[in-house]
Amino acid sequence: MTAGMNDKPQNSGDLALALMSPVGVILAGGQARRMGGGDKCLMELDHRPLLAHVIDRISPQVSTLIINANGDSARFGDFGCPVAADVIDGFAGPLAGVLTGLEWMAVHRPDSPWLLSVPGDTPFLPADLVTKMADALKSAGADLACARSGGRAHPVVGLWPVSLKEDLRHAMTSEDIRKIDRWTARHKIVEVDFDIGAGDPFFNVNKPEDFGAAEAILKAHE
What we know:
Layout: H1 12-19, E1 23-27, E2 44-45, E3 48-49, H2 50-58, E4 64-68, E5 83-84, H3 94-108, E6 114-119, H4 129-140, E7 144-149, E8 152-161, H5 165-174, H6 180-184, E9 189-194, H7 210-221
Parallel strand pairs: 1-4, 1-6, 4-5, 7-9
Antiparallel strand pairs: 2-3, 6-8, 7-8
Helix pairs in contact: 1-4, 3-5
């Protein structure tokens, strides 16, 4: 049996209810090397920070929204979200952000058994992200869910049960696991397809030239 499965809701009704009110974590702890460093999520798209676009998309879908970022949390003061620094030292990547979200929940939201993670540089996330991923997770009887579009998986966009918190901490601290898919391969994960439509909803702004493509997608959405 997968570690932590006994802690999951015991029937489909309880599971459905729990899945519809996850805590959300925006992963903004990267070093943005391809942007020349700094906080990529604070760079502007259509005169607003990328982070503001992500918050607009995700906040209606979660019960609580936090930002995972390192350094001085005051720079995120205008966004109205708690800020949690990585619980693993050394810029250990998005998996450390997921663990940070799970451990934050254990202290601040012990009533919520599920975490939704999204990157801070994806301004077009679907409005039905949680509902579609929750439905697929229930149907598949899976432990975890991640998004997929255009035939490509997006493991950073995921639904994670808090019951796997200790399993993940052990993997990161005792086994030095950093790649998300290396850890999720140990558990039953379902990849959930989303249509690309007017533009990939998981388009992420990685390089300065990506802002032009993001502007085009924004206009297509409008």
